[in-house]
Amino acid sequence: VDSALSHTAGAEVARRALELVAENPRLRDVALVCQDGVAVYNSVLVLAATSPVLEVLLLGEFKEGGAARVELPAVAAPGLEALLAALREPEGRPEEAQGARRVVQALAAARFLQVPDALKEAFEAWAAEDLAAGHCEELLAGAEKCKLDKLTEQCVAHAAARFEEVSVERLGKSTVVALLGSDALEVPGEEAV
Q: Suppose 108 and one of 48, 116, 118, 146 were both cysteines; which one would form an S-S bond, judging by CB atoms 3.0 to 4.6 Å apart?
């Protein structure tokens, strides 16, 4: 995650700045109002260093430039908080990034804010952990809602493999092979599984 900390400043400088802002509320000079109406407070300079989108919004020539409040209608507050926590705590998975729903929200926020790939990859790895831990349905629902194609594909592949595994245990391999090769799994108006 170190290389994801900043597109304009060194990783250690950005991490320390995030820590200072987390420790001292007086350094928080902007409110990012997310789609759920929740405001996430932080520093303009720290946020600008973590995302080119936020850099343009907060320091650019847009109407938001210099504003103390910026609307982010495509970002959920828990996702933004998880992103900021992962930047602040590069070792391991921070508490704010626990749970399949938060991971999906963070991936959607990362895509919208165009954070560096290394940070997205950390959340993708955590999504894979959640998938292996049995949170496929929740991840798939969130991935489809947020249009996260890569995660959607991983969830579908995982579900298909799990379906075959469970079916083989219960029905026997020959029955599953016959079902998968037939039209018996088709649902009217839907593509076959």
A: 146
